[in-house]
Amino acid sequence: MKHLHMLMAFLTIGLFVYQSYLVLSRNDRLGKRGKIITHIFYTLLILSGGWMLTLLMSVNAPVQWVFAKIILLIAAISASIKAFRASATPAQQKMGIFITAVAYVGILFLAFSKPANFF
To answer: 44-63, pLDDT tens digit by residue?
Structure first.
């Protein structure tokens, strides 16, 4: 399950970079298939992460950093929705992409460092 989660994280960030490129360079958007793929990636990412969280909690592992990752993922999804909406202004697009990128960097930092006493 860990490998599926890592693959989905990699693909989600890759899709975010591609969407950002489309919006910032050509002022273009993903089509219907791209939106469906985005939803599938997020769903598999959340389901695999939830499964691993239940496994970690069953052995009483410290999981405070996971809750921080969840909050950052919610922020990333929210900001990317605003950034990639067709009615978003260029300033909203840039700020949404920036907030999403910062959230993904924070998620990656937490994933690699796994601080034991985060809170």
So the answer is: 999 999 999 999 889 988 88
pLDDT tens digit sequence for 21-47? 999 997 778 888 989 999 999 999 999
Structure-token pair, residue 101? 């990128």
HEC secondary structure over the chain: CHHHHHHHHHHHHHHHHHHHHHHHHHCCCCCHHHHHHHHHHHHHHHHHHHHHHHHHHHCCCCCHHHHHHHHHHHHHHHHHHHHCCCCCCHHHHHHHHHHHHHHHHHHHHHHHHCCCCCC
How far is residue 85 from each of residues 23, 48, 72, measured CA to CA in Å? 10, 27, 20
